[in-house]
Design goal:
heterodimer, A: about 290 residues, ABC transporter involved in vitamin B12 uptake, BtuC, globular, B: about 350 residues, about 75% helix
């Protein structure tokens, strides 16, 4: 057990939480504007893939990062057009984006690198103290999102779009523009989370490497009560469970089966949304459209 | 009213699904073209892999069976107004339970063992469907989040059980799977030497039974009523919570049967790696317009895509392009629904369908 509580454990937890923090902040902004975004998973995957592909094409991980984020935003644009303008069912559309991301990245891996499993190795982003430079960036985003959401005119209007779409229209808020911006921002943040996975934490892309993190991030949004600080805490909880599991595996004589321990966050989330569902029901106008004409 | 007739809205739905699939295949061809592959050769390989020869047809039917069953589960949930992303979890719990029972070697003859193992799978899936249904009915917990959590919970729990609990369960940690299902519990083969098993028959039978339940019974009427309007159905004296919970139990059982068919029919054990049919099931349900008979055909379509997908490798196209095409199909359907919503277009077709919907 002496080998368990080490600095390594803390680093692991931070590294595992980082992609969740990025994606959860993106999901939070999106849901606050009234658009359900289960496409986070696919957007992260797009970000992860194109960050590697971009690095591979340009030779620079920084350009790769930009390309990854832009492509994730392009994916978010599909979600936005179908959810906001075409007014499709937002969950159905999100499912489609996820399938497209999964299929497209797997298809492109094969056509670019000629292998079915993953990409070649590329240069990764710089590291600070053994962790990617994107780790501190994720934490910096939390107060920024909180400030924009709660302290600026734009943030308050965005919330209005999510709470009372119809009233926002009556008050002269361009709800379409706000929702588009929110969905695109979620693409940006999910793209950062995905790029962190591929060229931040590692230096290659593997098929389905997000492995459900977009969905976990969505759970973190809800568990965190649609609040950036709450989402941060929830993301750390999920990250901790994953970090503890990995650390537990490499610690001889670890008392609880680490494979059982990883189920905890899911159980906690289930209990939390059941117990606090009244207090945590989310933006009232989630998934609802306003008549704009 | 028992005479089967195609109303105009049914024709619009069928036409819409065909258009959506066509658009998606064309978009898939564009993506292949852009990446330098030959879409014509790829689709030809897909066609051959899915339909040409006894083996190909068997593979299409093998892939279709779990997709039809899982698609039925999704469709039933949707009819009750719930977006059941948890098909995946319900499917793997069912597959795991069926494989456990099948691997225990209870010394029963096939006629008893196969139904028992299938039943275990259905019960496992039903339980995993009951949880989100109950949480929704009692606490209002949103099913999208609860079912996603339950998917991961199922995956992680089963991984734990197959890796660590070989002391009490018939599991094999070295394979990360259950032990092999005994021959007496395996689903009978229909067309040796191919791998085609009884699963497809179970799937089609389930679809017909579900069609009967949905459109010919009081419960089915309640399900459709709560799906259309929770408020109005409550006003009409329908117990919303009860209907939702029962619908989710049946949906879970259907998904569980899908998993059981995989364990008892195809693989002969339950692998802890998730097959990813849960999301395809959503596409199957949507293309089949959440109608049991429609789901049979869309399940066959997606079964063919999945069975033929690997053959596209010969045209240097990754089989995952099938997922991309599935995504395009869903987007196309979502867009066509909107066209369907425009009053001018609808009124021209569906003056009769509105009447038949009200009377159905």
């Amino acid at each position: 057990m002496d080998h368990f509580f080490t600095l390594d454990l803390l680093t692991r937890i931070l590294r595992m939480s980082t992609p969740l923090i990025f994606a959860a902040l993106g999901g939070l902004i999106c849901e606050r504007s009234g658009v359900i975004n289960i496409a986070l998973e696919g957007l992260m995957l797009i970000g992860a893939f194109f960050a590697v592909a971009g690095t591979y094409w340009t030779g620079s991980p920084w350009l790769g990062l930009i390309i990854g984020v832009l492509c994730a935003m392009a994916g978010a644009m599909i979600h936005a057009v179908w959810s906001i303008s075409i007014r499709g069912d937002q969950i159905v559309v999100g499912t489609a984006v996820n399938l497209i991301a999964l299929g497209l990245t797997a298809f492109l891996v094969q056509s670019i690198w000629g292998t079915a499993g993953g990409s070649d190795r590329v240069t990764s982003l710089p590291k600070l103290g053994g962790m990617s430079i994107l780790v501190p960036v994720a934490f910096v985003f939390v107060p920024i999102v909180a400030f924009v959401l709660f302290r600026t005119k734009q943030g308050l209007r965005l919330q209005a779009c999510g709470e009372h779409p119809q009233a926002s229209v009556s008050a002269g808020i361009d709800i379409t523009r706000y929702r588009y911006s929110a969905v695109l921002t979620s693409g940006l943040l999910a793209g950062l989370g995905g790029a962190y996975l591929s060229i931040g934490n590692l230096n290659y892309f593997t098929l389905d490497m997000t492995n459900g993190r977009g969905f976990i991030a969505l759970a973190a949004v809800i568990l965190g009560g649609w609040n950036p600080w709450g989402a941060l805490a929830a993301a750390l909880l999920f990250g901790a469970a994953e970090g503890i599991q990995i650390q537990g595996q490499s610690t001889p004589g670890f008392p609880i089966s680490s494979d059982l321990l990883v189920t905890l966050p899911y159980i906690v989330t289930l209990i939390a949304i059941t117990l606090f569902v009244k207090a945590r029901s989310g933006p009232a106008g989630l998934g609802k459209h306003a008549t704009t004409s | 009213m028992t005479r089967l007739k195609l109303s105009s809205s049914t024709l619009i739905n069928i036409g819409g699904s065909i258009i959506a699939v066509t658009i998606a295949l064309l978009l898939g061809a564009v993506v292949m073209r852009l990446s330098g592959a030959d879409p014509w050769a790829a689709y030809k390989a897909l066609w051959n892999g899915a339909f040409v020869g006894k083996r190909s047809i068997a593979e299409t039917l093998i892939y279709s069976a779990p997709l039809i069953l899982a698609g039925l589960g999704f469709a039933l949930s949707m009819r009750a107004g719930l977006f059941n992303i948890g098909i995946e979890g319900q499917l793997i719990v069912g597959g795991f339970m069926a494989a456990l029972v099948g691997a225990w070697d209870l010394g029963l003859p096939s006629v008893l063992y196969v139904p028992l193992a299938l039943f275990a799978g259905a019960v496992g899936g039903a339980f995993w469907g009951f949880i989100p249904g109950y949480l929704k009915a009692k606490a209002g917990a949103h099913e999208v989040i609860t079912t996603i959590m339950l998917n991961y919970l199922a995956m992680r729990l089963i991984t734990y059980l197959v890796l660590r609990r070989d002391d009490i369960l018939p599991v094999d940690p070295t394979f990360v799977a259950t032990k092999k299902v005994v021959p007496e519990a395996r689903l009978p083969l229909l067309m040796p030497p191919t791998r085609l098993h009884l699963g497809i028959v179970i799937a089609i039978a389930a679809a017909i039974i579900l069609w009967y339940i949905l459109f010919k019974t009081r419960f089915g009427f309640n399900v459709r009523a709560v799906g259309l309007s929770q408020g109005a159905s409550a006003y009409g004296g329908i117990n919303w919570g009860r209907t939702v919970v029962i619908a989710m139990i049946i949906a879970g059982a259907l998904a569980g049967l899908a998993g059981a068919g995989e364990s008892l029919g195809l693989h002969g054990r339950h692998w802890s790696a998730a097959p990813g049919y849960g999301f395809t099931a959503i596409a199957v349900g949507l293309v089949g317009r959440n109608h049991p008979i429609g789901v049979i055909f869309s399940g066959l379509l997606f079964g063919a895509l999945n069975a033929g997908g690997p053959a596209m490798q010969s045209a240097d196209v990754s089989k995952e392009i099938v997922q991309l095409i599935q995504g395009f199909i869903i987007l196309a359907i979502a867009a066509l629904e909107v066209v369907n919503r425009f009053p001018a277009i609808r009124s021209r077709f569906s003056r009769r369908s509105a009447a038949s919907k009200a009377g159905a």
